[in-house]
User: Fold this.
Amino acid sequence: MIFKGDQREILIITTSSDITQFIRRISDLDALTIIWARNNKTTLLIDQQKINLKANQIIFLSNYQNINIQSNGDFGVISFNKAFYCVIDHDSEVSCKGILFYHSTRFPIIDIPTSELDRYNLLWEMFDIEIKSNDNLQLDMLRTLLKRYLIMSTRLAKKQGLNDVSFNNIDLYREFNFLVETHFKKLHKVQDYASLLHKSPKTIANVFTNIGKTTPLKIIHNRIIIEAQKILLQGDLNINQISYSLGFEDIQTFSRFFKKMKNISPSKYRKGKN
Assistant:
């Protein structure tokens, strides 16, 4: 089911046992996507990495990530573009930027506990009813439902992934992830992001240590390598052009970085995937 607004707002919702056709439809929308494995486990391929979802797990995917389905299952999928709801502009409402979306450590996955399952199912039913409506209140209602869905999921993500972390640290963690997503093609050092956040690199490192996540530098490097792999597979640019597009001074520096991260040269990676 698709909602299309007068200002190019798009919301797509489906509950299908085969979402391959749906994924093709959203691939060109520059949309954020939520996939809920409802009743059984399923396998996805995200940016060439296999992800196994268990029943009642939800994965949140940003617009830059490539999605392929490896096995069918009972899915619930929501996809929406920036015109429909911009999580950046509305971050004060839902606080999901850097946790659910634009998360440079790649794949935020939450588990829906049994105590919350009825609430998620009820909200899905309300989506199903409202997207079939056709009046001047439909857009506002659908946005309200999406906002509630994101708030519920953000709360679970914080409980499950950021236990016993102060709100100040959570906010710093979120902002760091978002800034990496925004600037990774030009800024490659933790110091660069610390300056944007008006914090010292040591403060940033301590926050990540307290949270128990990967290091800030690994987040930057992981985001660069995801983009490098994506561009290499597209085949439109030569390796020299790719190195400059990702902020490297020359092809040698980029090649050393890529080989260190993937244990293979960029040229061999491209040949091996074609």
